[in-house]
């Protein structure tokens, strides 16, 4: 959450809102992540809604309060509210594309609390997030309706803040129990982007696309979840189950099944169409298909033992090569013959595979002998599916399958796609990464969604060993400048001196018509990341320190914002 400067400018804040509005309507991922938690369709917001997002990002519940704060010269009460909201923003799990937060943010929240201990009792919401049981009892006794009052930066109930807060060495379970005993709604939730239902239970379970390290489960996950379920929380928490589908632990699913999750329970995700029809999935069946996709045999067995539908075809909400096939076929095609045998033994449909499907199955099972025999007819027939097979095997850490497909000559790095290296990197599958690099995979290639090379994906996933391998590998001049790899920058310029003036657009692979960094040169990447030696080298090679973005902001201004005074001095000296 950004902090207002000592002398905030209302005009500057208005410009931020207008810039956010333009970016959201252009479907910029960062802008959509900023807006998503508050509005149903982030790409269709109004200027007033953009202003509200800016206000909440700065710790105010409305644009009017932010405006009054600026115009009144920061009164103490307003400062306390801003600090309290800033604390709550740091202390809680964040979902959506904005999932790059994690342990450091939680530590920062603890530091804010240490500096301003009065914010712990600022509201029922901060008391819940810090786990102050006595404060909560007093507040709820004085004002019983506060138990479900929405507030704070996310306009959540106190129980929601208790469920999503992750202060280091703090359990909010006792605080949550106080709220539940006082009548707090155990089914409180918010709709991310108007589509995805994030409940109290979802927050307690944690995890998600950002990974366990950034989105940890509650430290007393089982006790807190049981307390909420005992008070009537719906065990059919599709979002909570989805968030934990990326790792093999089944504790959450065992709890959901114990408290009554059934095969007939529909997904509680909602679509954004006006009729608000629920998504066409059932929670358990969806989890079975996902378990097969990720290779989680124990989860598949758990679901099968609890009566999941083993006949309905894969109807995953995003298309994969197994959509339309039965669970038996999916298990075979994803390299899990033992689960296919279990499905057959339980009476499930056991439709045989055709030659093409058998080829895919043998690849995923790491059966090179069978795969090489079938490859004579089928290799190259479906290149998109073959890329998906290798990408999936790499993401699952299925080394035998990856090695089989490498030996068969599968394409390792295709421009404009998320490569096998990207998915192996974010999941930390070091042996797969080494196998792909040894086979010639391109370590510099950027993915189309985030326009980043594999090492950034490893860093995002907090996969230190994977990141170390990839940072030591070849990368383009922009990445090398950002990482301070002077040797690689020098090598690139020796081969092509004009790269000193190259723009980021030249390496971007995404489908977007424009990207906010398209204008940037290697000098910008070095400057904002504080790489002084690389900045000096680029300036010596003729890099232009005066270039600016579409709004006229120069590299000097960006370096100032990042606090790199030495680099600012270098740039200014060269510019004059």
UniProtKB/TrEMBL annotation:
Coiled coil: none annotated. SMART domains: ANK. ANK repeats lie at residues 416-448, 518-550. It holds the Pfam family Ank_2. The keyword Zinc-finger does not apply. InterPro entries: Ankyrin_rpt, Ankyrin_rpt-contain_sf, E3_Ligase-Neurotoxin. Keywords: ANK repeat. It comes from the Bacteria. This is Ankyrin repeat. It comes from Cognatiyoonia koreensis.
């Amino acid at each position: 959450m950004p902090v207002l400067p000592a002398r905030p400018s209302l005009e500057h804040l208005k410009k931020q809102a207008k810039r956010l509005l333009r970016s959201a309507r252009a479907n910029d991922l960062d802008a959509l992540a900023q807006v998503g938690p508050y509005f149903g369709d982030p790409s269709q917001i109004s200027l007033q809604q953009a202003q509200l997002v800016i206000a909440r990002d700065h710790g105010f519940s409305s644009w009017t309060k932010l405006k009054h704060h600026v115009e009144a010269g920061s009164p103490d009460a307003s400062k306390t509210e801003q600090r309290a909201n800033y604390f709550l923003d740091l202390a809680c799990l964040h979902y959506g594309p904005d999932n790059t937060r994690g342990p450091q943010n939680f530590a920062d929240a603890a530091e804010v609390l240490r500096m301003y201990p009065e914010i712990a009792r600022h509201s029922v919401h901060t008391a819940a997030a810090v786990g102050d049981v006595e404060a909560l009892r007093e507040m709820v006794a004085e004002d019983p309706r506060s138990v479900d009052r929405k507030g704070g930066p996310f306009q959540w109930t106190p129980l929601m803040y208790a469920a999503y807060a992750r202060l280091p060495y703090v359990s909010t379970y006792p605080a949550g129990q106080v709220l539940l005993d006082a009548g707090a709604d155990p089914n409180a939730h918010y709709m991310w982007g108007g589509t995805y239902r994030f409940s109290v239970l979802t927050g307690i379970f944690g995890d998600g696309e950002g990974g366990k390290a950034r989105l940890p489960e509650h430290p007393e996950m089982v006790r807190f979840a049981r307390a909420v379920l005992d008070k009537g929380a719906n065990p059919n928490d599709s979002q909570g189950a989805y968030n934990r589908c990326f790792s093999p632990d089944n504790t959450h699913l065992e709890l959901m099944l114990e408290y009554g999750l059934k095969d007939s329970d529909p997904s509680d995700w909602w679509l954004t169409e006006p009729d608000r029809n629920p998504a066409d999935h059932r929670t358990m069946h969806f989890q079975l298909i996902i378990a097969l996709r990720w290779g989680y045999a124990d989860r598949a067995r758990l679901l099968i033992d609890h009566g999941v539908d083993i006949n309905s075809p894969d109807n995953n909400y995003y298309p994969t090569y197994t959509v339309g096939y039965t669970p038996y076929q999916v298990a075979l095609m994803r390299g899990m013959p033992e689960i296919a045998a279990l499905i057959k033994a339980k009476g499930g449909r056991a439709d045989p595979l055709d030659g093409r499907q058998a080829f895919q199955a043998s690849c995923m099972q790491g059966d090179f002998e069978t795969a090489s025999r079938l490859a004579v007819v089928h290799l190259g027939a479906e290149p998109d599916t073959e890329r998906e097979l290798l990408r999936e095997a790499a993401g699952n850490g299925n080394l035998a399958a990856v090695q089989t497909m490498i030996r068969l000559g599968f394409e390792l790095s295709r421009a404009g796609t998320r490569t096998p290296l990207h998915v192996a990197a974010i999941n930390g599958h070091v042996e797969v990464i080494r196998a792909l690099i040894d086979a010639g995979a391109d370590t510099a290639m950027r993915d189309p969604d985030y326009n980043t090379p594999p090492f950034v994906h490893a860093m995002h996933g907090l996969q230190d060993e994977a990141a170390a391998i990839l940072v030591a590998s070849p990368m383009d001049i922009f990445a090398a400048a950002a990482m301070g790899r002077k040797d690689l920058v020098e090598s690139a310029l020796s081969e092509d001196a004009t790269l000193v003036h190259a723009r980021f657009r030249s390496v971007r692979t995404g489908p977007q018509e424009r990207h906010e960094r398209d204008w940037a040169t290697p000098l910008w990447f070095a400057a904002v990341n504080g790489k002084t030696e690389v900045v000096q080298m680029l300036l010596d090679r003729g890099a232009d320190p005066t270039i600016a973005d579409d709004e006229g902001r120069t590299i000097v201004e960006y370096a100032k914002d990042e606090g790199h005074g030495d680099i600012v001095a270098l740039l200014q000296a060269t510019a004059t």
